[in-house]
């Protein structure tokens, strides 16, 4: 673990404190960087995390640069390209802000720019591809392969079978496969694909969806990928809320540069990776990253404590009228079930008690940071994909020992049921949105915990937890289907 940057400023002093003399990005003199990394999903997190680590590599070799592509819309690439791809990262501690310019991204493109995407993947100087495209973007079916029932996947499959089309694939696995084919055709050589999305064994997730798509579209390409491409798993951590207009004003006050692509993140950052890099990699360990043989305990600690806690606070907090994580952390109606959820996760974690206690204490402090305004609505999105890895995985282990579901997990699942059925205007989750407002506990369990929907004890405990939540006095009106408070 390491802190992302030293924060300056006193708790009692002015809220914004800059560091050193910063040059506006227009005048920024870039380091020479070799074009070795291609990134897909140019969101806030890539810019606060992988780009930050790449920026902070301390090594004598020529620094690596990132050619970054957006996942769905061109906007972020256009904004960044207008400022030479240099942007401000504000590190926001509880007692003040610091700012730095990041220039590790050397090119920013629309992900639909097929020609540049193929060229970047085919370039033999490219050794690493990183991904932050959200959990839902992998289109996984229940068997771990790609979901061929999805219309967008079927569309990509048709394009990939055609092989000659210049039309961009729509899905992230489709784009990746299209780029890998360009690399094979150009004899670009081996490559490492590093997933940085919040999923368990995320390298295997990417490999399985890409391989199943390749086998359906182009079996010879599938064989080449199997022998040439390494899929690296990584645990990634740095709380990075969506940027607001206020953040842009803060960046201007700190640096004098009116940055349209500013990113704000907490001081804490962690990156643990596992897998091979057959074409080399930046010395990310010199910036604090760790390379391990067994990633599982790190992933489980992060997903079952941090992310599970976030999801519980998001659904329960929204129900109680809160807007952000720090607000929910000031409400014992949220923190009591959070402690129970963490107690339950702790029993499943293969880690020493002292390490778990330290992680919990650190999380408590991070969640309480009143200046990281992490909106519950952002965290609440795509619960149908997030809850299985965050809450249901540890729950299944507990049930397998013959123990009943705990109050923490029951409250998290109950709060999600209430979110999906009673806060329809706030639901951002394609699978959950397809459920009717009359969906039962069993219906929502079937989506996130197949099999447990037929477990009468689990269903009864989640229903009881929902009744307890409904009896809590609400801090603010709960939006209804129409968004109009009841
Ligand atoms: N923000 C964080 O605190 C944080 C921390 C750890 C991990 N992550 C991981 O990073 C992901 C992105 O977070 P962010 O903060 O950058 O979000 P963001 O909204 O700023 O960016 C999301 C990026 O993913 C792309 N994308 C979204 N849906 C897609 C789809 N269906 N297909 C292809 N691309 C798609 C978008 O175009 C965008 O480039 C998260 O979902 C999570 O898995 C985020
Ligand atoms: O980014 P998501 O959508 O996977 O999840 C929302 C948050 O739980 C997540 O972004 C955390 O802030 C992050 O995982 C901290 O490292």
TrEMBL record:
All residue ranges annotated as the Mannitol dehydrogenase C-terminal domain in the record: 294-422
Pfam families documented for this protein: Mannitol_dh, Mannitol_dh_C
Name of encoding gene: uxuB
Protein's name according to its UniProt entry: Mannitol-1-phosphate 5-dehydrogenase
Annotated TM spans: none
Domain Mannitol dehydrogenase N-terminal per the UniProt entry, residue ranges: 36-285
Region Disordered: start-end pairs: 1-21
EC code: 1.1.1.17
Species of the source: Frondihabitans sucicola
Keyword Ribonucleoprotein on entry: no
Family statement drawn from the similarity comment of this UniProt entry: Belongs to the mannitol dehydrogenase family.
Catalytic reaction(s) noted: D-mannitol 1-phosphate + NAD(+) = beta-D-fructose 6-phosphate + NADH + H(+)
InterPro entries in UniProt: 6-PGluconate_DH-like_C_sf, 6PGD_dom2, Mannitol_DH, Mannitol_DH/Oxidoreductase, Mannitol_DH_C, Mannitol_DH_CS, Mannitol_DH_N, NAD(P)-bd_dom_sf
Keyword line: NAD, Oxidoreductase
């Amino acid at each position: 673990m390491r802190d992302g940057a030293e924060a300056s400023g006193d708790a009692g002093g002015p809220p914004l404190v800059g560091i050193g003399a910063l040059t506006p990005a227009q005048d920024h003199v870039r380091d020479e960087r070799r074009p070795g990394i291609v990134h897909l999903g140019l969101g806030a997190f890539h810019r606060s995390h992988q780009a930050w680590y790449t920026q902070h590599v301390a090594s004598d070799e020529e620094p690596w640069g990132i050619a970054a592509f957006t996942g769905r819309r061109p906007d972020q690439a256009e904004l960044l390209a207008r400022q030479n791809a240099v942007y401000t990262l504000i590190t926001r501690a509880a007692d003040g802000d610091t700012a730095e310019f990041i220039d590790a991204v050397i090119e920013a493109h629309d992900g639909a720019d097929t020609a540049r995407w193929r060229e970047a993947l085919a370039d033999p100087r490219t050794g690493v591809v990183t991904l932050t495209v959200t959990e839902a973007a992998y289109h996984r079916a229940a068997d771990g392969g790609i979901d061929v029932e999805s219309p967008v996947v079927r569309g990509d499959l048709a394009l990939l079978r055609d092989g000659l089309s210049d039309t961009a694939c729509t899905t992230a696995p489709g784009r990746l496969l299209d780029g890998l084919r360009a690399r094979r055709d150009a004899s670009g050589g081996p490559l490492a694909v590093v997933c940085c999305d919040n999923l368990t064994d995320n390298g295997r997730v990417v490999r399985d969806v890409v391989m199943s798509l390749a086998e359906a579209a182009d079996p010879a390409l599938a064989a080449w990928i199997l022998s040439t491409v390494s899929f690296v798993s990584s645990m990634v951590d740095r709380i990075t809320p969506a940027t607001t207009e206020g953040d842009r004003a803060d960046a201007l006050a700190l640096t004098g540069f009116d940055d349209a692509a500013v990113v704000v993140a907490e001081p804490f950052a962690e990156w643990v990776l596992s897998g091979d890099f057959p074409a080399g990699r930046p010395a990310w360990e010199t910036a604090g990253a760790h390379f391990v043989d067994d990633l599982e305990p790190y992933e489980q600690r992060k997903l079952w404590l941090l992310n599970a806690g976030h999801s519980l606070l998001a659904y329960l907090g929204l129900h109680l009228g809160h807007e952000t994580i720090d607000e929910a952390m000031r409400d014992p109606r949220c923190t009591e079930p959070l402690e129970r959820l963490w107690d339950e996760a702790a029993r499943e974690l293969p880690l020493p008690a002292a390490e778990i206690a330290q992680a919990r204490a650190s999380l408590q402090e991070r969640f309480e940071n009143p200046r990281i305004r992490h909106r519950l609505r952002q965290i609440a999105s795509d619960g149908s994909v997030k809850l299985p890895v965050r809450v249901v995985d540890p729950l299944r282990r507990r049930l397998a020992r013959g123990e009943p579901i705990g109050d923490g997990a029951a409250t998290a699942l109950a709060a999600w049921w209430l979110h999906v059925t009673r806060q329809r205007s706030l639901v951002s989750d394609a699978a959950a949105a397809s459920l009717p407002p009359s969906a039962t506990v069993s219906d929502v369990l079937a989506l996130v915990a197949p099999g447990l929907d037929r477990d009468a004890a689990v269903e009864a405990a989640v229903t009881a937890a929902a009744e307890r939540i409904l009896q809590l006095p609400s801090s603010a009106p709960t939006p209804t289907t129409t968004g109009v408070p009841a």
